[in-house]
Fold this sequence. Notes:
This protein has one domain (15-239): Nucleoside phosphorylase domain (Rossmann fold), CATH 3.40.50. 35% of the residues lie in helices and 28% in strands. The chain has 8 helices and 11 strands.
Amino acid sequence: MSIHISAKPGEIAPIVLMPGDPLRAKHIAESMLDDIKLVSGTRNIYFFTGAYKGVPVTIGASGMGCPSIGIYSYELYKDYNVECIIRIGTCGSYMTSLHLFDVINVDVACSESSYAKYAFDIPGNKLKHQGKAYDIINQTANIVEIPVMTGSVHSSDIFYRADNALPEIVIEHNCLAVEMEAFALFANAQYLNKTAACLLTVSDILPSRKHISADEREKSLDRMISLALESVAGIQAMIA
Length: 240
């Protein structure tokens, strides 16, 4: 057990998929994994362990923002010997050239967050994905014929802003979209020498204000989730 996760030793798989929403973690586990077991429900942040095509996988929620995923991913890596975490979430596109339901495999997360600097003395405002999961996801996407975009995203600590202008960091790094967690996940993985990737589905087009409805969000992420799950066999071979 760790401070925030009540799973027993051995109940968390070496590969973890992390949506933000605990109910989405429950939906994914129940609909896509075999032989699932609820291994932690502390604070209603659910972690389920099961198997996908014979590969052990844990699905667990991260909550919202760098501090939340920072806590859960650190404890997974450090206390449960997890080797690879793939964040699977939604994002808002800064560009009208992206479309609703497009899938992004994040190469670089850029942020104004002080998380990496003050937690681990990691300088700068951008961090790359860690390890080879990113490449395996791209290779798997080609095999299963799921189109993905790659590039930089903005990991923001702010959801609501008074200023509607593009943040300077978005312009500096040509960020495709905004989300809230990848930067802290990548920082933890870098510090602990672990593997981390991030897959995102475009749920909002910010310039046009188009967005996926609340009801659609439950099922519209299945293509991204399937890609993450189809990638776990290759990731397991990598970390074995």
